[in-house]
Amino acid sequence: MARLAQIPFNIFDFDYSDNNDAVQLVLRFLEELPDVLELFIDPTFSNFFEVSNELGYGEVLQQNSLQAMFEDARYQLLEEILVMRNAMENDPAYRERLTTELARIGFTGASLDVKFSLLNYRWRSTITPTERSGLFDFRNRFFVKPFKKFLSYLNSILGSLGSVIPGVDGIKEFKEVIENHPSLDD
Question: 39 near 45, Cβ under 8 Å?
Fold first, then answer.
């Protein structure tokens, strides 16, 4: 339970007063997201693999394979973000083009604020049932139901961002593997 207290409760609660820099907010979100998703398969914080084994999916959802998939996706995303940050430093027009693309998909200004506020709300709803147990419990319906809503909304966000930001697809695919855990079936 002490380790769970280290999870940032307001991880998606960004400061929008920072000149409304949508590019920086989106990139920071994408840089932090892998650490959040990893919590759901980390045995310290989650019974994901234990429940997979109990439900007969241990051969399908093997910890080593899923961890390797995650590491590949994280690496690809963070490398792409590094390339983008370097491009913004060297070419101010690149930042303008990226801001225009984010505006095109509704990830600037008030729209971005609403999206991240809703994502933060879904995150808080997901993490609240874990406070007593100290565990993301894939057996607990009070965790599973809000978790499914969090993943569904995250899917929408990643789908949109994937059309603008290279490297998002791998993290989205990893999220979809988690989303297809047998305990999340209706």
Answer: yes
Residue type, 139: R
Distance CA 9, CA 1 (A): 14
What are phi and psi for residue 46, nearest 5 degrees? -145, 150
CA distances for 177 relative to 33, 49, 84, 122, 158, angstroms: 15, 12, 27, 19, 14
Q: Which DSSP letter does residue 179 get?
A: H
Q: What is the pLDDT of residues 3-19, one digit of tens each?
A: 554 555 566 666 555 55
CA-angle at 107, arms to 76 and 126, nearest 5°? 75
Non-local (6+) Cβ contacts of 88 within 8 A are 23, 94, 95, 98
Domain spans, the chain: 24-184
Q: 0.85 exceeded by the pTM?
A: yes
* Bridge partners, residue 81, by sequence: none
Q: How far apart are CA 34 and CA 43, in angstroms?
A: 16
Residue 38: exposed, middle, or buried by beta-carbon count in 10 A (0-12, 13-18, 19+)?
middle
Extract the tokens encoding 134.
């100290």
pLDDT digits 0-9 by tens, 150-185: 999 999 999 999 999 999 999 999 999 999 998 888
